[in-house]
Write a structure and sequence with these properties.
Strand content: 5-15%
Shape: globular
Radius of gyration: 18 Å
Structural class: mainly alpha
Helix content: 40-55%
Number of strands: 4
Largest sheet: 2 strands, antiparallel
Bound molecules: zinc ion
Oligomer: single chain
Order of helices and strands: EEEEHHHHHHHHH
Number of helices: 9
Length: 235
């Protein structure tokens, strides 16, 4: 059975709250079907590689053993490396639906720059996994709680990381250094309008929308609207 709005790429439903149901399939919550002898070839929803398996859910979801055991940012890295999605909003939605992603946490500091760098690479057809890794690595440098403790939300700073990587900025650069500061500044201003408490998904989407508004990289794309469906587990 196909989902409405099902993504061709990952098979992950782009607009439902499925990952919150944790019984059975870790993507949609549906029952897992175990076959005794009917091995089928399935594509892993994270790394997009094909495997022979006896297990999948009633919606056809399958995650390979290797991806199943990765930590969350390794899963995100694999998904972004395998994805060809060029719209950062749609790509973020896919990342949000990766099984085992916490509702909030410093991992979002890596998700924002890694999504922006990946979407940029997909749009301009210059995929470079080392830069996705670098975005994740730099995001990890920003501590959890930096929004409240330092006045710099790590998701917002992710915009600066993305610009720095895309434009190859260093502390000695001129225009590139300015551009990196500017996108972070705009993202933080947008985030400040919400007050608190923090919501890492909201700040991530707000940062990415701000980035898309104040830079020209993604101007050729059609608008994609993000609809939050994780509210029930907000804490
Ligand atoms: Zn499923
Ligand atoms: Zn996999």
């Amino acid at each position: 059975m196909a989902f409405e709005n099902e993504s061709e790429e990952t098979g992950i439903n782009e607009s439902c709250c499925a990952p919150l149901k944790t019984k059975g399939c870790i993507i949609c919550g549906n029952e897992l079907l175990y076959s005794v002898d009917n091995t089928t070839k399935e594509t892993c929803s994270i790394c997009r590689q094909e495997f022979e398996t006896l297990v999948k859910c009633t919606n056809g979801h399958y995650i390979c053993d290797s991806c199943h055991s990765l930590d969350i940012l390794a899963k995100v890295e694999r998904l972004l490396t395998a994805s060809s999605e060029s719209n950062p909003i749609i790509l973020t939605q896919k990342v949000f639906e990766v099984p085992s992603l916490n509702m909030h946490g410093p991992e979002y500091h890596s998700i924002v720059p890694a999504v922006l760098v990946s979407a940029y690479q997909n749009l301009f057809r210059n995929k470079d996994t080392s830069k996705i890794k670098e975005a994740i690595k730099r995001g990890k440098d920003i501590k959890g709680g930096s929004c409240g403790f330092h006045g710099v939300c790590g998701a917002g700073a992710g915009c600066g990381i993305a610009t720095s990587i895309i434009e190859a900025a260093t502390p000695m650069s001129r225009d590139e250094r300015s551009a990196a500061s500017r996108v972070t500044g705009y993202a933080l201003l947008e985030i400040s309008k919400y007050g608190g408490p923090r919501c890492c998904k909201r700040e991530a989407i707000t940062s990415i929308e701000s980035f898309m508004k104040v830079t020209e990289y993604f101007n050729s794309l059609q608008n994609a609207k993000y609809t939050c469906c994780f509210l029930s587990t907000l804490e």
